[in-house]
Automatic annotation (TrEMBL):
The name this protein goes by in its record: S-layer protein C-terminal domain-containing protein
Leader sequence residues: none
Location of the region described as Disordered in the Swiss-Prot/TrEMBL record: 368-388
Provenance organism: Lactobacillus apis
Name of one Pfam family that matches: SlpA
InterPro entries, per database record: SlpA_C_lactobacillus
Lineage, top ranks: Bacteria, Bacillati, Bacillota, Bacilli, Lactobacillales
Length: 507
């Protein structure tokens, strides 16, 4: 969920409780609602984040019988406008309600100034912070002053926002069209008694953890925050499967990441439980204290490496020898890996570190021959019948490696070596039938092939090829202990991947 000097002590504080629920609605519906107003529009506004709607008395609107086509209901039935679709809305005037400024957007609905970024194209929050809760004002010595700012207060800050190369503790981000990359911005913090503060005036500071937006962008907290459960519900896995853990309404939980899950029709994020990192809760069931960094499904279940240079990256077999094929880095500079091994190279008399490529993680167009020429085009039979591939081609498809020295870790889960250089050397002995017993048992039990749905066809095929690889190792009189261990690992890994991974473009 991605959601990024001097204090005027006599300022008017603005208060509004928001919860970051993300759902779709139609921009045209907003326009239609605006046209229905009898009052001429005064201008346009944009939102910082999701904004609840209020009536003329300053109360959140909760009226299911009232038709509001441009708003959605949160888990408690209150009307709100999802920020990410509300790029521009018309307003018809402003109103001070209980000392707070609100914008009238028609149909007797109002939005708090605290939730608005731009008014008529001008950033109304430039140089300002918005608070997510009531906040005491502290001195440099860490003592509370006599001032307390209310929830959703808008405060001028001191200092200048700077750009960072990586995600700081507190930051906001935005993309530039020129490079299509995410850029991180932060306001320098002041450390007082071990806690982080923002300066808002001479000898005046507020806790950074109490800030919800900076310069009109949601302020992201790169850490662990608390959330309140809004409705009793079970947690879920990253693949949208319910667990046995039940979270009760009103319960406080710790969450540390917003993840875009795998489901094709899913809108919004699920949040990872800090104490149970394999469990998540859907955003509609929680109210967050702070916004968190966002990630996608693949970064949570996969590992990615990237070529160090533009030179094609050679692929190797389980013995550490080149297989005559290279990644075409012009087509695919970053690719999936699922294991990290030391492989003993007899010719060089040393162990080197290799990444195992995720089975079926690349297409023919991504590969070249080692001499730089393109691979031959697949025959019509190969396009329609995977069984037309030779045993060698199937094993290359499922059991190829790249040298760790040729790539850098890029994204996702960082892998640790599954063996040591010494173990790689010691396991060069020829395996006996007794050494192959565990692999043989696994191979025999796996003959009842796993049936995958169409969206997992590529993963299921990788599992089938792992069986082919295991059969070749079992029959070989020259297979080493290392090859037996790796064949068993591959069989178990590809089986697990069918249950735990999802790739929309696999076929």
């Amino acid at each position: 969920m991605k959601l990024t000097k001097k204090i005027e002590l006599a300022m008017t504080a603005l208060i509004l409780v928001t919860t970051p629920f993300l759902t779709n609605f139609s921009q045209t519906q907003i326009v239609a609602a605006a046209k229905s107003s009898k009052v001429a529009a005064k201008g346009k506004i944009t939102l910082i984040y999701d904004a609840h709607l209020y009536n003329k008395y300053g109360h959140k609107i909760k009226n299911k019988n009232k038709y509001l086509p441009y708003a959605d209901d949160d888990v408690n039935g209150y009307k709100y406008i999802p920020e990410f679709n509300a790029d521009v809305m018309q307003y018809y005037g402003t109103k001070i309600i209980n000392g707070q400024k609100f914008y009238n957007i028609g149909s007797d609905c109002y939005i708090s100034m605290a939730d608005i970024k731009e008014v008529n194209g001008k950033n109304s929050k430039k140089g300002k912070l918005v608070l997510n809760q009531k906040s005491a004002v502290y001195t440099k010595a860490g003592n509370k002053s006599s001032y307390t700012l209310p929830k959703r207060a808008i405060v001028k800050y001191q200092g200048a926002v700077k750009e960072a190369k990586s995600k700081p503790k507190y930051y906001y981000s935005k993309y530039y069209k020129s490079d299509d990359n995410e850029h991180y911005f932060y306001l320098p913090l002041t450390k007082i008694k071990g806690k982080n503060y923002y300066a808002i005036g001479q000898n005046r500071y507020i806790k950074a953890n109490n800030v919800t937006s900076l310069d009109g962008y949601p302020l992201i907290y790169n850490g662990v925050t608390t959330a309140t459960v809004l409705e009793t519900t079970a947690t879920q896995t990253i693949k949208n499967q319910k667990t046995k853990r039940i979270l009760k309404k009103g319960q406080k939980i710790k969450v540390d990441l917003a993840v875009k899950p795998w489901a094709e029709d899913f809108e919004g994020y699920i949040f990872r439980l800090h104490d149970y990192p394999n469990e998540y809760i859907y955003e509609n069931y929680i109210s967050l204290r702070n916004y968190l960094p966002t990630s996608d499904y693949l970064a949570q279940v996969c590992s990615f490496v990237k070529s160090k240079t533009s030179t094609n990256v050679k692929l190797y077999g389980v013995t550490g020898n080149p297989i005559g094929v290279s990644f075409n880095t012009a087509e695919l500079s970053a690719f999936n890996v699922d294991g990290l091994f030391y492989i003993w190279n007899k010719a060089e008399n040393k162990a080197e570190l290799y990444y195992h490529l995720l089975s079926r993680s690349f297409n023919r167009k991504d590969l070249n021959n080692n001499d730089g020429t393109q691979l031959s085009s697949p025959t019509d039979d190969e396009k329609t019948n995977e069984n037309s591939l030779s045993t060698t081609e199937k094993i290359i498809s499922v059991n190829s490696f790249v040298k760790a020295s040729d790539v850098n870790f890029y994204d996702g889960i960082k892998l640790s070596p599954l063996n040591t250089p010494l173990e790689a050397e010691q396991k060069q002995k020829i395996a006996t039938d007794n050494d192959k017993a565990q692999l043989q048992k696994a191979f025999d039990s796996e003959q009842q092939n796993i049936t995958g749905s169409s969206r997992h066809a590529g993963l299921t095929l990788g599992y089938d090829y792992a069986l082919v690889n295991a059969a070749v190792v079992l029959r070989s009189t020259k297979a080493t202990l290392a090859q037996v261990d790796e064949a068993l690992w591959l069989l178990e890994t590809t089986k697990t991947q069918i249950k735990t991974l999802y790739f929309e473009d696999f076929s």
